Amino acid sequence: ACGTDDSDPIDDGADTDEGTEEGTDTEGAQGGDLIIGQLSDAVSLDPHGSNDTPSSNVAYNIYEALLIQDENMELQPGLATEWEMVDDLTWQFTLREDVTFHDGSEFNADVVQANFERILDEEIASPRAFLYEMVEEINVVDDYTVEFVTEYPFSPLPAHIAHNGGGLMSAEVIAEDYEAIENGSEPGSVINENPVGTGPFVFESWTPGDEIVLNRNEDYWGGAPALDSITFRVVPEGSTRLADLETGAIHISDPLSPSDVSRVEGTDGMSVNSQPSVGLSYIGFNAQKEPFDDPLVRQAISKAIDKDTIINGIYDGVGLPAESPLAPDVFGYDENVSGLEYNVEEARELLAEAGYEDGFSTTLWTNDNQDRIDTATAVQAQLQEIGIDVEIEQVEWGAYLEDTAAGEHDMFILGWTTVTGDADYGMYPLFHSDNYGEAGNRTFFSTDELDSLLEEARQSSDEDERLDLYSRAQEILVDEAPMLYIHHQEFLLAVSDDVEGLWQHPTGILMLRDVSLNQ
Amino acid sequence: MQEKLLEVENLRISFSTGDSLLEVVSDVSFDIDHGQTIGIVGESGSGKSVSARAIMQLLGNNAEVGSESVIKFNGEDILSKSEKEMRRIRGNDIGMIFQDPMTSLNPTMKVGKQISETIRIHENASKKEAAARAKEIMRLVGIPNVDERFDQYPFEFSGGMRQRIIIAIALACSPKLLIADEPTTALDVTIQAQILDLLKDIQEKTGTSILLITHDFGVVANMCEKIVVMNQGRVVESGTTSEIFTSPKEDYTKKLLAAIPNLHEEKSPESKEKLIQIYSGTREKLMEVNKLAKHFPIGRKNTLKAVDSISFDIYKGETLGLVGESGSGKSTTGRTLLRLHEATSGETFFEGEDLNTYKKKQMKEMRKKVQFVFQDPYSSLNPRKKVEDIIGEALDIHKLAKSKKLRRERVEELLTLVGLDKSFSQRFPHEFSGGQRQRIGIARALAVEPEFIVLDEPLSALDASVQLTIVDLLEELQRKLNLTYLFIAHDLATVKKLSDRVAVMYKGQIVELTDSEELFTNPMHNYTRKLLSAIPVPDPHYTATDASFSHDDSVEISLEGQTLQEVKANHWVMQ
Amino acid sequence: MQEEVNLNSGSPTGQEPVNHNIVRFQDFWKKFYRNKSALIGGTLIILLILTALIGPYLTPYSPNAQNYDARLVGPSLEHWFGTDNFGRDIFSRIIHGMSITLRVGFSSVLIGMTAGVSLGIISGYFGGWVDTIIMRLMDILLAFPGILLALAIVSVLGGGMNNVIISVAIFSVPVFARISRGSTLEVRQLEYIEAVKALGASDFRIIVMHVLPNILSPIIVQATLNIATSVLTASGLSFLGMGAQPPTPEWGAMLSDGRNYMWDAPHVSTIPGLAIVVVVLAFNIFGDGLRDALDPKTKN
Amino acid sequence: MLKFLGKRLVQTIPVLIGVTVLTFSMMLLIPGDPAQIMAGESASPAQLEAARERLGLNDPVPVQYYNYVSGVVRGDLGSSIRSGRAVSTEVFGRLAPTVELAFYSTLVSVFIGLIAGVVSAVRRYTFIDSTLMIGALFGLSMPNFWLGLMLIQWLVIGTGWFQGFGWFQASGWGTPQQMILPVITLGTAGSAIIARMTRSSMLEVIEQDYIQTARAKGVSEKKVIYKHALRNAMVPVVTVVGLQFGSLLGGAVITETVFAINGLGRLIINSIRARDFPIVQGGVLVFAFLFVFVNILVDIIYRLLNKRIDLN
Ligand SMILES: Nc1ncnc2c1ncn2[C@@H]1O[C@H](COP(=O)(O)OP(=O)(O)OP(=O)(O)O)[C@@H](O)[C@H]1O
Ligand SMILES: Nc1ncnc2c1ncn2[C@@H]1O[C@H](COP(=O)(O)OP(=O)(O)OP(=O)(O)O)[C@@H](O)[C@H]1O
Ligand SMILES: [Mg+2]
Ligand SMILES: [Mg+2]
Ligand code: NI
């Protein structure tokens, strides 16, 4: 479905392997100990306590959510076998029976209730709470049926439930954690020591900053996975990860830098795994600041940038030029919406029309991510062509987030990942007037029409209607060009040829259940 | 014919300074027989030390030895020996005592180790044996408390003691030839006598030959069979000791001999007048020292009472001589007086005011009035400054030169005054001979036209004729400007000549204090007597009549329970 | 025994040039001039400065001209030093970046050295509580993560070249302070210091005229070495928005930008690295020469 | 000596207080909000607010500082904002690799630096001298990351030597095999500086009179150099070594990153970037303590080298 890299045998194997949830695919299960070298350590193994990819990667193997999204971001049964919308505000989930947690406790509706109540508990201050802030109550209907009631109609709820932030842990651990909080501990500290879920792998140990080890869950309800154990090892430097891969110290390097793709391809015994993401990289304009309050200027700039050059030049051709904020795999993406085309002549005209025939000077902010810096450098050179003088300013990450949220920028480079795979998450936080600043809308762009479209779309339960609304929203966003949509990244992994059955989710999570090592 | 131990022929040495070649030794020839002691005397800066270094092949890389020069040691040509061969000779066959005791010792190595090292290099001695031998030698050269001192560092030693360490190093392996460059100048006469006896002793036992460089004709007369007189890089005259003393041929030699200070000279009437004024209380007091003490911590608990509660007065216009055993605290007294060291206790009044209460500004004024000539001429000169700036600095500090030109003129005038060439102002300290450096120190002190100067061994490295010049200069300045001196020295003849009154120090105390005439004719304290009896007599035919006094056993004189008392009018003795 | 008259006496005559200032400078210059390393170092530095000034007018390419068709090309006739990931000509970038790199390296060292040496000498010379306070402050500064400090400077003073120079200078202050303190402690106890004290010299005078010249050599060494570290540190701070911002061809930044291409195109990082070596080499050789010329004992 | 030690240890207290105050105020000064950084690009305001409240970031500054200090006094360094783990666990867990790395690197750089410096001082102006010193400058001008990556690429991957002998695993710390390359990487610049310092200091000392005395004793040139000159030349070198050790502690970040060593340097930098104040505070505090300790050591060595230097 997503193969951009035909030369890669593993990729194909993984991609065609649908219905993985059923856990029927167990050939080649020789076991083995898989070692993954990753950029950074997990922050927390409390599924409600973090939202970074390394944490998710680990948590995904320990905990499971009620639903899962397949590689096409389509919803599939997880710990819930069925789900339906009872009315505009009520969703009902039927739970899988005979599932036990790693600590032996039983999975049932009470557990689900306890988990979601914890996420929404302000005292816990879960960074995942925003996914469920529309949920008003969680009702236990019977042992294996649970009901979510939302404050307003919210059709993407199942997608949110499927997010790994909705991973479920043993009620006993939750109780213990609360007890510890009473005694002055930080929320999650018990869970970090002893994460207990229902997933295919069981937590073994965590040396912070160094590695996390998981072991096979022999009693996994979907059948025990092939691997004996998984080690997530922190190797911050990309080149070192490759060296480790080459010397056999690790099996997977996550992530792989685009500039290293050719190197990996040229080395025996390893290959590149690429996976289109549901992310977007963009240059945001400050739509409330001159001259970016003028759509003509924003369009001019959007037209002046050759995305292909950037993708080829900086990302080594990895990634998809973005037409609109939504990636193709996101629900609501409209392939008929086409973005502003690269055309320097037209860009100049637009700029002249806006009253800047001689161009102007401005600044472009970036944080210290090398790809973003390079993008900025390329953009600077291209804007020079239409007379816009760009000064690049690097800002340290912490300050960057704060200052862009405060609207102190002219232009800035950032990214956004539609973690739920639903257009609501891909647009509502970024472009709704309620979300100015730190909530996500750092361009400070909004129109009334767009606001109402986005509101309507998130409340509608009719898929076709939603698609239609999102189409219109995307058209507006292309037209108004509050951002210059650069590209939808691809996740890149370098994988040892010993690894079989690996695939990566569009949200970046490694799917390890069916992986086996072939030594 | 038996071979000579050392033959030096046509030695010519030049230094390159800047871009000119400076010939400092020209055509020097002399030789030494086995077991012989010869003395080199001569003007300061005449090339004595340089010649000695040439024998050791330690001239440094800016020196050049003329191609026609020959130095033969034991019949072998030294100049053609490799560095490795030389190393076997140095310290073993030829021992060398360098002139400058302060900078010749490694500051970060324990003194004992510096001695035992030589033994270990040349003789297959174990560490323990070498240490035992080293201690023995330390005792031999008269270091007290050897066991304790063995593990001390050079900075903890007085000038004289350092000199003895250097002697000990040179003697450690009983060399065939000992080159001793001013070996006793920093020592008091008792120790000097001891060392000289020691050298003679060693010579007798081992047949060592000695090349002795010195200014002191008393020492030469005592020790040497032959004398070489040098002046301006050349040998002016040489011959047996009695020849030179009785029938000198050259003018320079005559001049030198004439300049030898004489103990029996009468004091001048001026001096007598001064004494009358002092004793009658009509002369103004410049300084009043009351129970001054300076203690240094040694080790963890012990303290060394370098100066242990001394009281005395200094009157305006007088010269107070300060003599005494090396290490008895003379320099420390001088330093503490001027607040270069903070006193441990006691008071010092300068022109009636307590020095300890002086504020910064007063101190600066005081510093203009009071000067210090340091005992060690080399280390008291900043190695990175030219002489012009070293002396000129004194003028700058007190704003005594109105223009650059005046400053330079004044510096040149001062150099001339102390008998140095004007052009020396452009040289750096390491380019001078010992005596020249000493005179630079004097010139610096004189630059500010002080009222009071502490002269710490100002003449030790000077030959007799230059000494005389400087002594005359000092006296003349005193007469003209009513200068006051505290004159610290070992050379008792000069002390007698220059001083109005003399204080004798021993173990940090003043043991005797009276006018110089009285002290030399009627010494009352045991230590003073011992001191006076050790004065070498500049007459080769003189043999010590007072055989009762042996130099080698340094009989400790106890000061337990004694105080300084006026035993006789104006004659204070510790009893 | 010879009894000839003086031909060439040990003591030179008193008739020589009158102006000693000139003589003194000539002495220094002569020594300096004759000192091969000083000469080579000095010439190199002058060459570098000239290149920094004139070079930018002569380069074959514009330093920021991108050419995606010639990315990561190795050194060739067309591109002497090859091209970087944007296809920019590295040779042109090196030449254009020279002035800014020299400025960062040199000014930050100069500032850091001045402040550090002053503090160190004061501390070592006076000792006691002055020493305690200064050295404890230096400890704090040393123990303190540089990034935090730099961040604070950015947030108070803003980014920009001058502030990066200040930050880098601040990092090096404790280093210079410690080194000069250590040497001062040693020099302080020497007799010639006591001798000038006896002359009534003020502490200031002693420090400037007597202590400083005698501790100069470790300071010169440290300073010339520090130029390299400063350039590298400065580029390390650019992510905070300090100092040279892309696409400025500052060498340290070029060096670290090349990091991603070290396997495929090592020249991208190696060449700026070598350029830094050349500059540091020039200053070090020069520093050695200076040291020798200042030391009266070395003759050449 | 004991008195000196006592005095210096007492002096550590103000240093540590100074460090905490400085760190604290810097943290206030610099923009960036831990809650927001934790939440990343997509955070909801309510959630941020809740997080701030929980972390006590909404308290007035003096209250925050008071809370912090009173915690420290009770031996509680607080807990990480990001992970919730106790700061002491996080910090001390990572202390050993960093200290070891700095220690071995210092050892290596002293060893190499001293030898190179002495050799080039003794053979002044010869080919060896120039080669060594130019080598030193190369060592100095190579950034750690460059050297580290090059070592990995050339030695580990390029030649296969290390993996062939089972000597090297690119990541991790603890076994001698793992230590070799990081220690070389970190120690190189240090040896360069030490070599240069030693050379210049030696040149100064060799000119002194007492070196001549030693030669006059017949001491071999080697012993003259190593027993007489070196010790006297050591004072500036010791200073540099002390500084080196200190800066290695802090400067190990890059080496730790390149070689995947789970050290304190990396932790602190990451925490600064995440505005994880308690970790930064704790880490800096530990560094400061080590630093002061190293400085005390340096002063003692000064004194051991030259008894005349008065510590009090
Ligand atoms: N390293 C040097 N460079 C230049 N000139 C030097 C050097 N060493 C000594 N001289 C000069 O050589 C001459 C002889 O010096 P030397 O030290 O031999 O004198 P000396 O006879 O030992 O005098 P003194 O009795 O004062 O010690 C002096 O004029 C001195 O200035
Ligand atoms: N800075 C110091 N630290 C420790 N001990 C010292 C110090 N200076 C001098 N002493 C000791 O004090 C005593 C007296 O020394 P001082 O230099 O005053 O002797 P001196 O009478 O001048 O001897 P000399 O005639 O040999 O110069 C000696 O035992 C010496 O070792
Ligand atoms: Mg001499
Ligand atoms: Mg003395
Ligand atoms: Ni003149």
Automatic annotation (TrEMBL), chain B:
Gene Ontology MF terms in the entry: ATP binding; ATP hydrolysis activity
User: What's this protein's family per the entry?
Assistant: Belongs to the ABC transporter superfamily.
What this protein is called in its record is: Peptide/nickel transport system ATP-binding protein
Q: Which parts of the sequence belong to the ABC transporter domain?
A: 6-257, 287-532
The alphabetical list of record keywords is:
ATP-binding, Nucleotide-binding, Peptide transport, Protein transport, Transport
Looking up PANTHER family in the UniProt record yields: D,D-DIPEPTIDE TRANSPORT ATP-BINDING PROTEIN DDPF-RELATED (PTHR43776:SF7), TRANSPORT ATP-BINDING PROTEIN (PTHR43776)
Gene Ontology, cellular component aspect = plasma membrane
Organism annotation: Alkalibacterium pelagium
Tell whether Ribonucleoprotein is among the UniProt keywords.
no
Query: Which Pfam family, any one of them, does this sequence belong to?
Result: ABC_tran
Q: Where in the cell is it found?
A: Cell membrane
- Report how it sits in the membrane: Peripheral membrane protein
For this entry, list what GO says about its biological process.
peptide transport; protein transport; transmembrane transport
TrEMBL record, chain C:
Can you tell me where the transmembrane regions are? 38-58, 106-128, 140-158, 164-180, 219-245, 265-287
User: Which InterPro entries does the entry mention?
Assistant: BP-dependent_transpt_permease, MetI-like, MetI-like_sf, OppC_N
Protein's membrane topology: Multi-pass membrane protein
Keywords assigned:
Cell membrane, Membrane, Transmembrane, Transmembrane helix, Transport
Q: Where is each ABC transmembrane type-1 domain found? A: 98-287
Q: Record's Gene Ontology CC terms? A: plasma membrane
Q: Which Pfam families match?
A: BPD_transp_1 (PF00528), OppC_N (PF12911)
* Compartment list: Cell membrane
Q: List the Gene Ontology MF annotations in alphabetical order.
A: dipeptide transmembrane transporter activity
Q: Does the keyword field hold Transmembrane helix?
A: yes
Per its database record, what is this protein's job?
Answer: Part of the ABC transporter complex GsiABCD involved in glutathione import. Probably responsible for the translocation of the substrate across the membrane.
Q: Name the protein family.
A: Belongs to the binding-protein-dependent transport system permease family.
Instruction: Kindly give the PANTHER family that the UniProt entry links to this protein.
Output: GLUTATHIONE TRANSPORT SYSTEM PERMEASE PROTEIN GSID, OLIGOPEPTIDE TRANSPORT SYSTEM PERMEASE PROTEIN APPC
Name of the featured protein: Glutathione transport system permease protein GsiD
Taxonomy of origin reads:
Bacteria, Bacillati, Bacillota, Bacilli, Lactobacillales
TrEMBL record, chain D:
**Signal sequence, renumbered to the chain:** none
The root-end lineage is:
Bacteria, Bacillati, Bacillota, Bacilli, Lactobacillales
Q: Which InterPro entries match?
A: BPD_transp_1_N, MetI-like, MetI-like_sf
Source organism = Alkalibacterium pelagium
A biological process from GO = transmembrane transport
Which protein family is it in? Belongs to the binding-protein-dependent transport system permease family.
Enumerate the subcellular locations listed in this protein's record, separating them with semicolons.
Answer: Cell membrane
Sorted keywords for this record are:
Cell membrane, Membrane, Transmembrane, Transmembrane helix, Transport
Query: Membrane topology type, per the record?
Result: Multi-pass membrane protein
Q: Name one GO cellular component term.
A: plasma membrane
Name the domain of life this protein comes from.
Bacteria
**What transmembrane ranges does the database entry give?**
12-30, 101-122, 134-157, 177-195, 233-259, 279-302
Name recorded for this polypeptide: Peptide/nickel transport system permease protein
Q: Where would I find the ABC transmembrane type-1 domain in this sequence?
A: 95-302
The record's Gene3D superfamilies line, in alphabetical order, gives: MetI-like
Pfam families linked to this entry: BPD_transp_1 (PF00528), BPD_transp_1_N (PF19300)
Keyword Transport attributed:
yes
